[in-house]
Amino acid sequence: MPSNQDRMEHVEFLVVGCGPAGGIAAREAARAGVGTVVLEKDSVIGAKRVCAAGLRPGFCATFDLPREIVHCDTPRLALFDPAGKEYELTIVPGHTTTREELDGTIGKLASAEGADVRTSAMFREMRREGDGVVIEYADARAGERKTIAARNVFFAQGSTAKLEETEFAYPQWQSGLVTTLQYRVYLDRPADAVAYRSLEMHYFATRDGRMTVAWMFPKRDHLAIGLGVMGKMPGAQLRAELDLFTERVRARLYPAAAFTTKLEGHLLYGGAPRPGIAIPGAMVGGTAAGLVDATNGEGIYEAAMSGRMAAEAVSAARAQPARAYERYGAALKKRFYGRLRHRAELMRFLERKPARYTKLFEQLARSPRFVDVLQREDRDRSLGDRAFLYGQALRFAARTVHG
Ligand SMILES: Cc1cc2nc3c(=O)[nH]c(=O)nc-3n(C[C@H](O)[C@H](O)[C@H](O)COP(=O)(O)OP(=O)(O)OC[C@H]3O[C@@H](n4cnc5c(N)ncnc54)[C@H](O)[C@@H]3O)c2cc1C
């Protein structure tokens, strides 16, 4: 009679979650010839993701994705301060899409490269065994619990990742969670033309005095209008805040249109990145690693890039002795942690005195170079850019010293 050990499935690389982090990791690992299995809890990849789905400039080219998923190109960023004053910035155009298209496309491309993508498969537990990791998951289609052993696991379950009972625990995680609520607004006629080339970010206090970040991102067939608050807020209160905000957007952008709405909500993370993200046999990426820009909630690019870095680490570890987790942890921290920590600190600084948003937005609106340098990753900034940024930071500090 075979033992449990004999029956257990083995795989070289196991990916948990098929968002941008997991999907890109699976696609690129499979493409490099690494045997890859993906566990995704949803039955349809991306169908349940709640997101404004704004993509960084060049995202599709960077990750070799078809341009057809792009809904709108957005060369205009409109920032609104707590008094509702608008500051217009010209940016390198980003794009918008929907997550059903983005995640669904990446999932299909991962399968096409040979990754075994299993939907309705929910991760439950992990334990270490020998050189690798054993994962237990619920296969909802078969109605069974299954186990699978892997040489390396990449955890990419997003903001709802339950890692607090593991070696990746981070006591500050809970306090960094943001509750979000969003409408998809479907109009019977187009909104004002400016809406379709703009990303709007609004920073204001809710009626009970908590700072909130709200947005309007345009899509081909709807506008995504939403907001997020740090911590928890009762559902009815959050919905009332969203209704007030949506009404303000309606009055500006589609005053005469009839519309229907679809409401959706999810958790986001807006704190500093998770300190522990790599242990022997296991790595954490994307939002589960806290890779989100706290000033605007963006994390798709960082998630996808962390997936790429996990795939690179796993395939490089086949040829060279350095272990995948060490390679991954060092590379990811070097690339993203400095900027994302600064963004989380900046956000907390701004929230303490709302007048600070106004001062920052004035400074940004006056200096296209400031906007340009801020849009870039640390590693793409020249020495001159860094000195310039430092000068702008000093200027901002001097202007906010008394408020
Ligand atoms: C309202 C809102 C608006 C946002 N807007 C933007 C934006 O405009 N631009 C931007 O860049 N970022 C935005 N973000 C952030 C962005 O959504 C995340 O940074 C990004 O989704 C992170 O990707 P990920 O792959 O790490 O995780 P996710 O996209 O969350 O994917 C996680 C995957 O894991 C699966 N999963 C979860 N638990 C399990 C389990 N136990 N077993 C198996 N599978 C599991 C999920 O079903 C999901 O498919 C927004 C977030 C929110 C909430």
Counting DSSP E segments of at least 2 residues, the number of strands comes to: 16
CATH topology of one domain: FAD/NAD(P)-binding domain
Supply the CATH architecture of one domain: 3-Layer(bba) Sandwich
Shape: globular
In the CATH hierarchy, what is the superfamily of one domain? FAD/NAD(P)-binding domain
What is the arithmetic mean of pLDDT?
A: 94
Hetero groups: flavin-adenine dinucleotide
The oligomeric state is single chain
End-to-end Cα distance, whole Å, is 74 Å
Q: What is the CA-based Rg, rounded?
A: 22 Å
Q: Count of helical segments?
A: 10
CATH class of one domain: Alpha Beta
Tell me the helix content.
Answer: 25-40%
Gist?
The chain has 10 helices and 16 strands.
Task: Describe this entry's structure for a reader.
This protein has 10 helices and 16 strands. The protein is an alpha/beta fold. Among the domains are: 186 residues, FAD/NAD(P)-binding domain, CATH 3.50.50; 59 residues, no CATH class. Strands 1, 2, 6, 7, 8, 9, 15 and 16 form an 8-stranded mixed beta sheet that branches. An 8-stranded mixed beta sheet has the order 3-5-4-11-12-13-10-14. Strand 11 and strand 12 form a beta hairpin. Helix 2 packs parallel to helix 4, helix 6 packs antiparallel against helix 7 and helix 8 runs antiparallel to helix 10. The radius of gyration is 22 Å and the shape is globular. The protein starts with a helix and ends with a helix. Flavin-adenine dinucleotide binds next to helix 2, strand 7, strand 10, strand 14 and helix 6.
